[in-house]
Amino acid sequence: MKFKAEIDVMPLDALLDPQGKAVSSSMGNVGLPEIDGVRIGRHIRLFVEADSQEVAEQKVDEACKKMLANQIMESYTFSLAKM
Which partner for 20 in 3, 32, 40, 67 could form a disulfide, CB atoms 3.0-4.6 Å apart? Predict the structure, then answer.
């Protein structure tokens, strides 16, 4: 079976996010002063071939831990959909 994974990687809340801070500071300049606390991360989409959803989840989790997210500085979440 083939599955599509949608992965979101975000900086940990305890760490500075200079990109997010710059965007947050600029919101007032574009007429959106009510928006703050912007955090910027990454969105990753991938496809995985697996015998079951459980196996696909394990493979995606392993990919996140080994390559897609730096767990010292980032957290990740993902969803899986059967194709």
Answer: 40
